[in-house]
User: What shape does this take?
Amino acid sequence: MNYSLQYGQIAADVPYILAGAWPTLWLTFVIFFASAALGLFIAMARLKGGPVAARAAGVWVTLTTNSPLFVVLFFLFNGLPNWGILLSPVAATLIAFIAISSGYLAEIQRGGILSVRASELDAAEVLGMSRLQTLRFVIAPHVIKTTYPALSNFFIFTMLGTSMASLVGVNELTGRAIEVTSRTFRSIEVFSLVAVTYVVLSLLASLALALVGRMLFRVKARVL
Assistant: This one.
């Protein structure tokens, strides 16, 4: 069967498809920062919490890092309604992504916390800082700096992963591509455009993250 490329047939839909980059970026920012905050809390619980908190945090990390995102997303969106719990596509996406991502980010940030020198913590204690102040002014800045390259890569990984949100009907970049494909039947043209768009977004994000890293920490952030 011969297939000839006809990009002209999707020309009118190109602006609509490309506009899907905005919900993609919105999802990325919300998921990443919420996951990072939750991950830092979990990492602190594993290292500084009591036996119960440390064990609970460890169980959470084990469950989330060994659970397929696809399965969790479908369970939240298609399984919970059987018990009368209805989630919107966006809500199911956010919960699934944040839950899974928090486990991975907790381990990344735990490594950063372990790299904090004991002398810095001792100095914070001598200055009379509370645990919250120590976390905010001593631990968090150090963790962000030491784990910045890994966090930068995870940000891009999250952005690319948001394409899975289309599986539950979220109208982001991939979701719009699926919609246009079902109407025009020009799958190669549509998804080649989407693939290029993701590459451009990734490269721009890599550049922006590298520049931020150099300005804030004066380090060369190695990102994708």
Q: What stands out?
A: DSSP finds nine helices and no strands in the chain. Residues 21-171 form a domain with the MetI-like fold fold (CATH 1.10.3720.10). The CA atoms of residues 24 and 172 lie 5 Å apart.
